[in-house]
Amino acid sequence: MIIPKEVKQKPVEYLSLALIFFVSLIIYFFAPIGSHGQRLIVYFMAGCYFFWSIIHHYRRGDLSFSIVVEYLVMALFGIVLLSASLF
Amino acid sequence: MKHNLSYYFIPQEKNNFRAQILKNGFLLILVGFYLINQSVIKFIGTVKPGVLGYSSEITAQKVLNQTNLERQNSGLPPLKFNSTLSESASKKANDMFSQNYWAHTSPNGTTPWDFFKAVGYQYSIAGENLARDFYDTESLMKGWMNSPTHKANIINPKYQEIGIGVVNGTLGGIKTTLVVQHFGTPMKNIVTKQTQPKQTQVEQTLEPNQQGLKDVVINEKPVVLENSKILSEQKSEYINPLTINKIIGAIIFSLIIIVLFIDGYFTLKNGVNRLTGSNVSHIGFLLIILLFMLYQRQGAIF
Hints:
Distance between the termini of chain A: 37 Å
Structural class of chain A: mainly alpha
Order of helices and strands of chain A: HHHH
Distance between the termini of chain B: 51 Å
Shape of chain B: elongated
Oligomer: heterodimer
Order of helices and strands of chain B: HHHEHHEHHEEHHHHHE
Largest interface: A-B, 45 and 44 residues
Number of strands of chain B: 5
Helix content of chain A: over 70%
Largest sheet of chain B: 5 strands, mixed
Strand content of chain A: under 5%
Largest sheet of chain A: none
């Protein structure tokens, strides 16, 4: 199994992100939360992903405006895709 | 042509070693494209009502059976089908279509209880569940049972009767099926129960299995539901907007994920150091969103 170099360098950080994704996935599909709850899970996951990126890049020493915008756009895209088409 | 494509998909000196599709400006264009697609779908729904829609195979009989099955699983007696309640449920669905709203209370302030009164159903306790855009009864019931407030209506031990309206029409320019459940306990039944405590006690001592048998017998009797419309014959007549959204969303997200993989591969191969976000985290996030979208339950409840 090929593990990317960046993951090998910061395994705890990537594991914490994987945990956020995993928990969100479980709640989204298996918890009796209704569509409103699912929407909140998507917001929560996108928010966690964005804040994770800030902490991750700050610790790596390469936090910049363009990187913040990149994660923001990705998070926004995820929210738009699910909010506009499903709820 | 090949050269132009590589500019968008493969990191190289010309695109500053980052695939053009993954740059912030291009990603924003894709977000904008998706939003425009949403507006176009809504516009089509307004200009050409009936072109877009959700097909359904839901019938009132199936909803009744599934509802009583859920009650049976909770150890509750089945609800009796009441044609008067079904009339009020269908009136509510037709009112939502005619006034073009999706809520318990209409824009002019008509509450669910007004529909109960309009058909002459005197209740001591009553409730309403709404659903739209579901294809099958199983998904519809799952949607309701996953919502604490709707579930509370379905397995409320105080309700004795149910009426179901399954009506199709055009709501907001989109063809769909509205399902309305009206729950109630007639006023006289409460009085009867209070004056005949022994009979109530007998019912309560029934074992869950015996209750189940009782349910089966009741459900085996065919109930004529005039308001039920089997819509499966019409399911290919219009285009499902959810399917359009899913296809376009899946294409865009898959494209980004593939380009992220390509970008990661070439960066690793060429040993380029760039000031960009982590491809691994982007891929993980987008895959989860894609999964949410593809396996999202259909329909909406209220």
